[in-house]
Design goal:
The protein has one domain. Helices cover about 75% and strands about 0% of the residues. Helix 4 packs antiparallel against helix 9 and helix 9 runs antiparallel to helix 10.
């Protein structure tokens, strides 16, 4: 079957399975297999073997396993607790946006619920904000690092699919994170209103802001190692080793960290993404996609935004648009093997906006449930924030 028709059928299967409530990993694996069979026929088997055995697959598995192990140990050790208390001591309005962002530095499924539990009393009791706004604050700022933080699976998957260093991806996508922070603040600050009586009260004897450093040092070490030239696997391995020395988890906790890092769901997702990349490469679908854009006159940047956004809305997962459509868009995102900053930024912004607007996003559902809010009223804040983030990212992409 024609590669583009095969890909369209595979994406339709992905969306249908998600709509039927099937697990996202199962849906990605099934759509990958469907595309391979439809586009390559019996050639699907040797192609899959080449994708599984590639150096990129090994490197990606290693990076994700290290990132998840680090997240698990830091969560177990309570490394965030001191930083959270310090942020609250600075001010409730500051904590309202900074604590979810801090928790967002540790990628974990449904992670917004962690910051929601930390901030429930601050939002609803101390600040007295309405429940939909509390949901928006926690949900939005929990995700502002998705386009720039190297622990996120989407960044690692994108780099592997495009055969590019992680820092090259981040150097193109970081304006999307800046745009999301700016958009969130533009919506949140007026909505929170002006504090009365000189500010929201803080507990007596609160920790000094200096105690935040004791909760932030692992993040600083990741960034410093990465900027010093270590590959992402090296930076993560060094930081994990340092955290293990500092926290000294027992054997049972180490076993849990390894089990969490090698969760079959994550492994299947990564292998599916890399096999799909191989299928797209060998079927020639990426070249046909670029030809189709030229034939029908769709501006490349418009396609780069709209396709990941649509997949993001339907799948509600940060990494799925990277794993499912970036292989097809490789010729657009990285022509000649070199990342096009404008296209890469536009695509990531589209995926981010789509995922954040998806009513099926697990973090949105869990946060709304925890704060006792219905989901529809949250869109009073989500829609303008998404529109501003898209506009700012688009302006940055056009300026590159």
């Amino acid at each position: 079957m024609d590669p583009l028709l095969s890909f369209a059928a595979a994406m339709a299967l992905l969306v249908s399975l998600m709509a039927l409530g099937r697990d996202v990993v199962e849906a990605v694996a099934a759509s990958t297999a469907a595309f391979g069979v439809l586009s390559l026929g019996w050639g699907v088997f040797p192609s899959a073997a080449r994708g599984l055995a590639s150096t990129g697959t090994v490197n990606l598995l290693s990076a994700v396993a290290l990132a998840l192990s680090l997240a698990h140990v830091m969560r177990w050790a309570g490394i965030l607790d001191g930083a959270t208390a310090a942020f609250v001591s600075v001010g409730k309005r500051f904590a309202a946006v900074s604590v979810p962002a801090l928790v967002g530095l540790i990628p974990m499924p449904g992670g917004a619920l962690v910051s929601a539990m930390m901030m429930r009393g601050v939002y609803l009791d101390d600040m007295g904000v309405n429940r939909p706004l509390a949901t928006f604050l926690n949900y939005w700022f929990r995700h502002v690092w998705v386009a720039v933080w190297p622990l996120y699976q989407g960044i690692l998957i994108t780099a592997a699919i495009l055969d590019s260093p992680v820092r090259s991806v981040i150097s193109a996508t970081f304006p999307a994170s800046l745009a999301s922070v700016a958009a969130g603040l533009l919506v949140a600050v007026p909505a929170m209103g002006r504090p009365s009586g000189g500010g929201y009260p803080t507990p007596a004897g609160s920790p000094s802001p200096a105690s935040a450093a004791r909760g932030l040092w692992p993040f600083a070490l990741v960034v410093a190692s990465f900027l010093a030239g270590l590959p992402v696997t090296g930076a993560l391995a060094l930081t994990l080793a340092a955290v293990l020395v500092a926290t000294r988890p027992d054997r049972s906790e180490l076993r849990e960290a390894v089990a969490f890092a090698l969760n079959p769901r994550f492994v299947v997702l990564i292998l599916s993404a890399m096999v799909l990349r191989q299928f797209v490469l060998e079927s020639g679908a990426s070249g046909e996609f670029l030809s189709l854009l030229g034939d029908v006159g769709v501006p490349p940047l418009a396609a780069a935004f709209l396709i990941p956004m649509a997949v993001g809305v339907f799948t509600a997962a940060e990494f799925v648009y990277a794993a499912s459509v970036f292989p097809l868009m490789k010729g657009l995102l990285a022509p000649g093997g070199i990342i096009d900053p404008s296209a890469m930024l536009t695509a990531y912004a589209g995926g981010f906006v789509g995922v954040m607007l998806s009513p099926a996003h697990l973090c949105l559902v869990l946060t709304a449930e925890h704060f006792g809010s219905r989901v529809p009223p949250v869109y009073r804040y989500l829609l303008p924030a998404a529109a501003v983030a898209a506009a700012l990212s688009g302006a940055a992409a056009l300026a590159l």
